[in-house]
Amino acid sequence: MKKIKDLGLIVLIGLLPTLLIWLPFFVRLKSFWGIPLPQNGMATIVSNYDGPLFLVVAKTFYNPDLIGASFQFPLPTEYYAAHFPLFPLLIKIFSFVGGYPYSMLFVTLASSILALYFFNKLISQYLSKKNAYLLTFFFAVFPARWLVVRSVGSAEPLFIASTIASIYYFQKNKYLQAGLWGMIAQLTKSTGIILFAAYLAYLIFPQLKKIATSHFSKWYEILNLKKTLPIYLIPLSLIAVFAFYGFRMNDFLAYFHAGDNIHLFFPPFSIFNYSASWVGTFWLEEIIFIYLFGILGFIRLIKQKAGILAWYVGIFFVSTLFVSHRDLMRYSLPIVPFLYVAFSEVLTSREFKIAAAVIAVPIYLFSLAYISQNVMPISNWAPFL
Questions:
Q1: Torsions phi, psi of 91, nearest 5?
Q2: Which of 113, 136, 40 is nearest to 348 (CA)?
Q3: Which of 53, 178, 249, 380 is least surrounded by Cβ atoms within 10 Å, i.e. has the fewest?
Q4: Distance CA 351, CA 121 (A)
Q5: Is 154 in contact with 167 (CB distance < 8 Å)?
């Protein structure tokens, strides 16, 4: 009974903020707090980037002929390879829930609740139950970009949920569960491979001296591969995705031929090239704060001897230094749950509770404004239904 009550609380924490975001669009308010709102109802929510692109995949499953015949986006077929298959597959499976568009919102919302559930399990290892639920509530709405992606059609909640779950089980040496959840993360987004890189680094780095002075035949024993073998499900699932692309799109490397959808550039900090196609502005000062909190969180996790959390945040953070995209916050979201661990002492302080009460209003207003403008132009909804 107690577990059901706790789960019910997490479901409520997950549902309430999203329903409040949806409400002004659902009732077709003309404006809120002076912010003009579109009059398209829930179509505004469904048409937020990259939701319609996932709907295309869910309806066609990368079939080039079906894509070309049914959808008129000016995009090459290979572009859809950047949208990994698990999220669209779940949309297809649950399409009986009000059709494909509302299935997408259902899967996103269910995934976000799953993310909060595993976040609560993770943070409960470091805090009292009361403070764990407090931070779970904070995590439901902050950062604001996270609240947005879990309120529209997005693969991020499923990816973040499976990443937290995988790391949670890895911490407990439950490598089969860690590998299975890592596989789910990898089938959801390409950056799932960073999880595998972090696991390898965590396992290999302390054993480097032994590995360097031992015969190759001993590595199996040194690296405890008998127990840790399930984590190799992660790269195997990536190969499986590419093999599926080879079968479906006649291009094993279709992901790398997806046009300008891969936003990694050298040298690092190329995001400050305001002329780059996915940047397009010199108003980028907040990017510095994203870097600042990322590196501070990484250092704090090292000082806290947080092990795999530090490795994952460190490797993922370094990868973000090469991302040249205005929406860097969205790319950084997978490390946010672990930054909560790093800053848990600050986040449970009285001062932060006061600050959180103040910033709740701008978080909500930002979310409404962002969702109202971040829409794909769709004149004919028939192919998406």
A1: -60, -45
A2: 136
A3: 380
A4: 25
A5: no
102-106, 163-167, 218-222: which range is least confident on average?
A: 218-222
Which residues make Cβ contacts (< 8 Å) with residue 118, sequence separation at least 6? Answer: 161, 164, 165, 168
Look up the pTM and report it: 0.96
Per the DSSP assignment, residues forming a β-bridge with 48 are 375
Place of tokens 């609740």: 113
How many C-beta atoms lie closer than 10 Å to residue 21's C-beta? Answer: 21
All residues at 6 or more sequence positions from 34 whose CB lies less than 8 Å from its CB, including other chains = none
How many Å apart are CA 338 and CA 125, to the nearest integer?
Answer: 12
- Tell me the angle at which helices 129-141 and 2-26 cross, rounded to the nearest 10 degrees: 20
Structure-token match 């909500």, residue found: 364
- Give the list of residues 6+ apart from residue 18 with CB closer than 8 angstroms, or none: 109, 112, 147, 150, 151
Residue 319, both tokens: 């990868």
Residue 133 tokens, joined: 């639920």
CA distance 60 to 58: 6
Token pair belonging to 363:
């978080």
Task: Give the Cα separation of 268 and 264 in Å (integer).
Answer: 9
**And the tokens for 252?**
């094993």
What amino acid occupies position 278?
A: W
